[in-house]
Design brief:
This protein is an alpha+beta fold and about 650 residues long. It has 24 helices and 26 strands.
Length: about 650
């Protein structure tokens, strides 16, 4: 059964990837025949197992918004676990019994209810007695089964979590709630409790089952191991565990501690539970803790060091966050020299001063934190100005937490996305400048405008001493910057991020003005709307951008650092002038569809993603395909041509034979 579930997960992943490529990215990674075959195989597996896993294309969960999350009382109170940091205490607790040792995931506990094989209810832990109903949200978790083979009433508990990888990726897109979401657990809690489950679906929430509350008529042979394996056979991901007894317990704890940094989900310790269900339940519970299980918390490795400085980093939301920089220490096998202090309240609570003796550790063995300040001189001042734009900074109160904030809307730190676009592949194409690196440079005050990127060579001393940098990486970056100095008007125009001026429009505008930058920059509205594909809104935004004095100065500053190459203006007829093409399916004569797109644009044509009444030709090597684009083209009477026919057209200069 486990093999079948794994096979189902693999087919769901492949089918969803194919659907995303086809519908969202205008490309095909498999034929319709292959897609249908996989779909039918998945349907058969669902019939065989009686389970339908989350994300299955055979069933679609609709998005739904609610005004509030209703409350509901749990059938059984959910108690917290007693805790220890001492392995000897774990041994004494386990005694002569056998147990299961597993990760203690740091997420949000959820209770699921299934009836007649269908997921009917999901409730958060809440205060342990009353939780919030989040059924719609649970249905869009990444890996939750919507239907299971067991047809009786099943109530189970598990942990909803967001992986570190997804947290880091999502956090970069959730800057507007940066104060609220400081770690994967907080992000998970906020994601699970959304009023619109479309947002939940975008957050990649996973669910790991860890215990059965009720399963009518199921014999677990009085074993937690059997119970856990049964949950796995129903289609649930279960928390990885190891069987232990008193003799191998310490060795197994050590094994988990060695794996924690490579384990992709946040864990704040381990959970030990008796394998003997009846024995565990016979012990009852205290007012606060069940007696059948206990938590083991990592004994944090704490080192003393000296505070060297507090660095203030302005984020794209305007928050100015303090970061402790201290003499490097070895923690959990890695060298650590900095830790976020998060906000003014935490910094003031520690009463930090330069030169203070502080104690640092890694929370959950992962995230560096300042544990305490032994000196408490309290001499670190709160800056009066933003470190990036130098405008006055304000202190504000957010949910009883004091934060420092830059109110300047023109602060460069708030435009990190624009700078990230400026250095992107189709723009200035500067390798080695990720969004996070740009943020670090801004926080140090090294970048105040796009042109400053070309001047980073003058900040070598500061950059080579930054975390993640050294002599070699700095030189690689300088080489990439210098290589990008030789560019062209298309890249420059696209890099400026003018509203609605994408790469194809930038190419069309530059071509219209013969790649003459002065003509491009001073283009008038009446000239722009004559260009095929440039409409009223685009033309107005374009003119407005270049009428702004600040933008003019910015462009002049960039021009002082780069060299615009002369573009050879193609002679002869622009064969595809004023024609719009759509490309679908695989290509045979070009490396990829982008190369074919470039060939069309070089001859004056335009390539779009969707077939509309404005499309002149659909290019598809499988003319008989029943794809949605082919169907749409036939409905609208738009010619469907092959790549071979297009090449013949280009070689002959005429489309006479392909109409």
């Amino acid at each position: 059964m486990d093999d079948k579930f794994q096979l189902m997960r693999e087919k769901i992943q492949i089918l969803n990837r194919a659907a995303k490529a086809y519908y969202n990215e205008n490309r095909e990674i498999m034929s319709n025949l292959e897609y249908d075959r996989l779909y039918d195989e998945l349907s058969e597996l669902e019939k065989e197992t009686g389970a339908v896993l989350s994300g299955s294309p055979t069933v679609r969960v609709g998005y739904e918004s609610v005004n509030s999350l209703p409350k509901e009382r749990h059938e059984r109170p959910m108690l917290s676990l007693d805790k220890t940091k001492d392995v000897e205490v774990l041994k004494q607790w386990l005694g002569e019994q056998k147990g299961l040792l597993s990760w203690k995931l740091d997420g949000l506990t959820i209770v699921l209810t299934y009836r007649e094989g269908k997921l009917v209810k999901a409730v958060t832990r809440g205060n342990g007695e009353v939780g919030e109903v989040v059924t719609n949200n649970a249905k869009v978790f990444v890996n939750i089964p919507l239907e299971i083979p067991y047809r009786g009433e099943l109530i189970l508990r598990g942990e909803a979590v967001i992986s570190y990888a997804d947290f880091n990726e999502l956090n970069s897109r959730l800057a507007e709630i940066e104060i609220k979401y400081k770690n994967p657990r907080n992000l998970c809690s906020g994601s699970v409790r959304q009023l619109n489950n479309k947002i939940t679906a975008e957050r990649n929430v996973h669910f790991f089952a860890f215990g059965v509350v009720k399963a009518e008529g199921v014999d677990f042979d009085n074993s937690r191991k059997v119970q856990t394996n049964w949950l796995s056979k129903q289609g649930f991901d279960v928390i990885p565990y190891r069987e232990v007894d008193r003799d191998n317990l310490e060795e197994t704890v050590n094994w988990f501690s060695e794996q924690v940094e490579d384990y992709g989900f946040p864990s704040d310790g381990l959970v030990l539970i008796y394998d003997d269900i009846q024995y565990g339940e016979s012990l009852g519970a205290t007012a606060k803790f069940p007696r059948d299980s206990i938590a083991f918390k990592w004994r944090d490795e704490i080192k003393e060091t000296k505070l060297l400085e507090v660095e203030w980093s302005t984020s794209r939301t305007g928050l100015i966050n303090p970061i402790a920089i201290f003499e490097p220490v070895e923690l959990e096998g890695t060298t650590v020299s900095r830790a976020s202090l998060h906000n003014i309240s935490i910094m003031e609570g520690l009463e930090l001063g330069i030169g203070d003796e502080i104690r640092v550790y890694k929370a959950n063995m992962i995230i560096p934190q300042v544990a305490e300040n032994l000196t408490r001189s309290g001499t670190v001042p709160i800056p009066e100005n933003c470190p990036v734009c130098r405008e006055p900074a304000h202190i504000s109160q957010e949910n009883d937490v004091k934060v420092l904030y830059c109110p300047n809307e023109e602060c460069p730190a708030k435009h990190v996305k624009a700078y990230t676009h400026f250095v992107s592949r189709d723009a200035m194409n500067i390798d080695g400048l990720s969004e996070s690196t740009i943020e670090k440079f801004m926080a140090k005050g090294l970048i105040h405008g796009p042109a400053d990127i070309f001047r980073i060579e003058g900040h070598k001393a500061e950059i080579v001493n930054m975390e993640g940098f050294g002599e070699k990486s700095f030189q690689n970056l300088v080489d990439s910057v210098n290589k990008a100095r030789n560019t062209n008007s298309v890249r420059l125009l696209y890099s400026l991020g003018i509203p609605n001026i994408g790469l194809s429009n930038a190419k069309a505008i530059c071509k219209h003005f013969n790649y003459d930058w002065q003509a491009i920059q001073s283009a008038k509205y009446d000239d722009l709307i004559k260009i095929y594909g440039i409409g009223d809104v685009m033309a107005k935004a374009y003119v407005k951008f270049f009428e702004n004095e600040k933008n003019i100065r910015m462009v002049e500053d960039i021009l002082s650092e780069i060299r615009l190459e002369e573009v050879e203006i193609p002679s002869g007829q622009l064969l595809f002038e004023n024609l719009t093409f759509v490309i679908t399916g695989s290509v045979e004569h070009y490396k990829n569809r982008n190369e074919l797109k470039t060939a069309i644009e070089e001859k004056g044509g335009k390539v779009t993603d969707s077939v509309t009444k404005n499309t002149d030709y659909l290019i598809n090597n499988d003319i008989s395909s029943t794809s949605s684009k082919n169907k749409k083209a036939k409905q609208l009477g738009i010619p469907i041509i092959t790549e071979e026919q297009l090449i013949q057209w280009m070689e002959s200069g005429s489309n006479t034979n392909i109409k």
